[in-house]
Write a structure and sequence with these properties.
Length: 248
């Protein structure tokens, strides 16, 4: 019996690894803005295309902020740079790697590193979102982040509740160099005038087939951490394995 349990546990572990774009990502402990740094990746598939993100953990949960490189093949060691205007100097940044056609839950994050030389400060809008992205990271290059930040802050706080103000912000962000308009979701929920409070939504978690925004509660704003999602998957696979054992 222990033999079969061990085999099913190994199978569950292997399926768990398949949900990740790569096994592990490592970067230096300190990265200076505008300076090339080396990223080391294990278990790459040379046939896949990857998106490399800058990620931050402002609200406690790590999530993608913008992309450094979009749809590229990677080697085990690749070099990248981070624009100084993307944010302030801090130690809550990391690098994320995901397959271009994958989900946010499949992104593998590196160790956190200290970012030095950052020239930007977070706006009132970003502070209000408490770490949730104000735009879909898949559609926002880090080189355009400063431009998008100005657009979002210029319409704040009206863009949280007023559709006209939101559309003004959206048009402004879509005009920033390199921003992708296709399948873009709203960075903050546009609520009705009867709503007593406004809530922000994570653009990566609120995507619908029509591209419209949907309101979420405060707990959903930052999205479920990838680790929590993966834990649920493992528990589910372990349950399936347990049922299979009963029929042996």
């Amino acid at each position: 019996m222990h033999y079969y349990v061990a085999n099913y546990a190994a199978l569950a572990a292997s399926l768990f690894r398949l949900t990740q774009a790569v096994d592990s990502v490592t970067v230096p402990s300190t990265i200076a803005a505008g300076t090339s740094f080396q990223l080391t990746v294990d278990d790459l598939d040379s046939a896949d295309k990857y998106r490399v993100y800058l990620a931050a953990a402002l609200g406690g949960d790590t999530g993608p902020t913008c992309w450094l490189v979009n749809s590229t093949a990677l080697s085990s060691s690749s070099n990248f740079t981070i624009p100084a205007a993307v944010g302030p100097s801090a130690s809550y940044y990391s690098i994320g790697i995901g397959e271009v056609d994958g989900d946010e839950d499949d992104i593998t994050y590196s160790n956190k590193f200290s970012f030095t030389g950052g020239t930007a400060n977070y706006t009132e809008y970003e502070t209000h979102l408490d770490g949730s992205p104000f735009w879909d990271a898949d559609d926002l290059p880090c080189s355009a982040y400063a431009c998008a930040r100005k657009c979002a802050d210029a319409s704040y706080p009206d863009d949280l509740t007023d559709e006209k103000a939101y559309n003004t912000m959206k048009e402004c962000i879509n005009a920033c160099p390199g921003v992708t308009e296709t399948s873009q979701t709203t960075p903050a929920a546009v609520t009705s005038s009867s709503a007593s409070t406004s809530t922000s939504t994570s653009s990566s978690s609120s995507t619908s087939s029509s591209g419209d925004a949907s309101s979420t509660n405060g707990d959903d704003d930052s999205g479920a951490p990838a680790a929590a999602v993966q834990q649920v998957m493992v528990v589910g696979m372990a349950s399936v394995a347990g049922l299979a054992i009963l029929f042996l």
